[in-house]
Structure formats: C-alpha cells, structure tokens
Fold this protein.
Amino acid sequence: MSTSHSLLAFSIKDYINYLPLAVAILCGVILFIALCIGFAKGARKVRYGGVAWLIAGVGYIFADKFLRAKNPLNKLLSGRFSAKVVEFASSFSIALACILIVLILGGIFSLFLRPKKKKEKKRKENLDTIGVSYDENFQYQVFDKKAKKKEKKEGKPSFFGRLLGGLACVINSAMILATIVVSVLFVIYSTKLKNGVLAPVLSVSYVKFILKYALLYAVDLGIIGIIIGFASLGKKVGFSNILRPIIIKVGGAVLIVACFYIPFSRFLTKVTLMNSLVTRCVGAMSKVGASVKVATIAGKIVAGLLVAVVVVLALLLLNFAMKKLSKGIKRVGVVRVLDNSLSCLVFLIIGIVVVALVLAVTYALAHYGLFHAGGLLTGETTLSSGIYDVFDIYLKGYLDRFSGALGRLMGKIPL
C-alpha cells in the first residue's frame, strides 16, 4: 500500500526529470544490440548508409571551413548575385562535392569488396556399373562435400571483419538515433514546450551539450543525409527501372485520357487517323438506327474505346520489352554502372528539391510565428545559415504578399 502511495506521490515533472536518463539507457541498449548484430554478420554483409552519411557530413564541415573562400564559384557568381547568395552557393557546391565523392567511393567499395554471387557450374555425373557416382573429373562425391565444407569455412568473416561490421552497425544505428533525438529536442526548443512541462529536459547538462552542437551542425547533417539517402536509393533502383513505370503508368494514363478527349475536342480534325475512325464509328451507329446526336456521341465513345484498347496492348508489349531490357542491363557490368549512375543523379536532384521544400515550409512557419526556425537555421556553416538568408531575399516577399492578400480577403468577409 505504501509503495503505490509513493508512486502516486510523484508528479509528472518528477517523471520528466528521469526522461533524459531513460532515453540515454535505451539508446545504449540499442547500440549494444547493433554491435552484436554487426559482429555476427561481419563487414561484408552489413550496410554502410550511416557511415557514408557521417563521412560526407564531417567531410563537408571541415571542407567548408577551409575551402569556401577559395571556391572558384565565388568569382563566377560575384557581381551577378548578392554576397549572401554567392556564399551559400559556394557552401552548397562543397556539400554536393562531398556527397558525390562519398557516393563514388561507396560504389567502388561495393564493386570490389562486397561478396558476389558465384554461379556454380553444374557437374556432369557418371554412374558406373555398380551405381557409384563420379563427377566429370572422376572424383568421388565425398570430395565434393569436403570442398563445400571448406567453402563455407572460408566464407566466414574474420575477427577484424566482425569488428568492422560491428562498428558500421553502431554508426548506422547512432545516426538514426541521433536524428530522432535531435528532432525531438528541436521541436521542444522551437515551440512553447520549452517553457512548459518538458522544460526540465532542456536543463540537463548533457542535453544542453547535445542541443548546443545540434544547433550548429544538425541541419547541415540533415540536409546532406536526405540528399545522400535519395541518391543511394536511386543507385539501387537503376534508371531503366525508374523510366519504365513513368512511361507505362504516367504515359499510359495520359494517352488513355487523350483517347477519349480528342474525339470530343477541336483537335479532332488535326488527328487524321482518329478523325477517320470517328467518322466510320458515327456512320456505323447511324446505320443501326440511332439519331444523329446519339450516333455522334456513341461513335466518338466507341472510337475512343477502340484506340484505348490498342494503346493498352501497345503499353503491355512495351512494358514486357522494357523489363527484358532492364534484366539485360543488369548482366552487362559497364552498362549497369552507367544505368545506376544516371539513376543516382536523378534521385540526387529529387533529394535537393525535397530539402528545399522542407526548409521553405519551415521558414514559412517561422515567418508566420508558428515555429522558431531562426534558431535552427543559424548554424556554424553557411549551408544552414545561408538558406535563411536566401529565403529572406527570394521567399519573404511572396509570403508578405500572401499575408496582405489574406488580410484583405478576411477584411471583406462580414463577421
């Protein structure tokens, strides 16, 4: 009875005080599990996404400090744009260079050091008169079993390989955990929660330490992480596999809509084949006994349906051909590398667009007083702090106009 009473005596603030310690213990347990998993798998069988992210991020922070002023892009853009935009462009180009270097090194690592699937040659077996099995080299089957055991033994990772695998898994997990923890701290720091019930969290010494360096570098690492994540995804997918769904699904949907739109549009006379088909279908409907209006509408629908069927059949055939082409590309090493590189570049651009949109939304929320983004976008490097300056120049005016237009609209509404 006394135990339950003592538990109830604790307020929510008392439990909040223990929250940072609980999170730290949980992170420690997760990292230990990651170490065990990586140690069991070995260096060749673990992923290196977090390692690549960390190398690119740390490399950028040092490169930006020493190379930004020497970047030839400064002279190229100087005078055409404001000094703040030029500084940001210089910093961003260094970040992209670091990402590309890490991606290239990662590709070389995967090409030469990753385990490859070995195609086992089928051995012809010969049976003698008493039914004993021999292979083509007249070796007993028992020797094949020994060879397989030797192969398995040789395939086991070394102790050093296990240590590298454990370290890679720990870094991967640490980057994920850091992202989650820092994101939560940013939400607390950037909203009214920092003065509310979660205020004790920010007063803990090691939380202050984490938040101090997170405000300096976390946004930079986040930007680089998103871009490198998209680029890595593109490298795995391949350009041929990206192109196929775009052509088949998006292109197919557009063509099918056009099949039913053109017969009813003013462009019908310009599309000779469709115009001829519509004329014949309308004539066929008239022969059945339909009125002129019904025959015209029904004939156009039937013509669109017939063309749509042909388009679907053509798309199915094209899809089959592109699948075969994609499989063929995977078998040719040089072509596969080019295909993956092109896909990597496309996804890298998509990653840049996603980052720009996320930061633009964050800036807009701060502009309207809904989120304190100013503290997040004033880091040590120009990549994070420069974005804020660029948005001040190019985005703030549009947000002010929107606010004014919205205010005028609300003023006209009678309340």
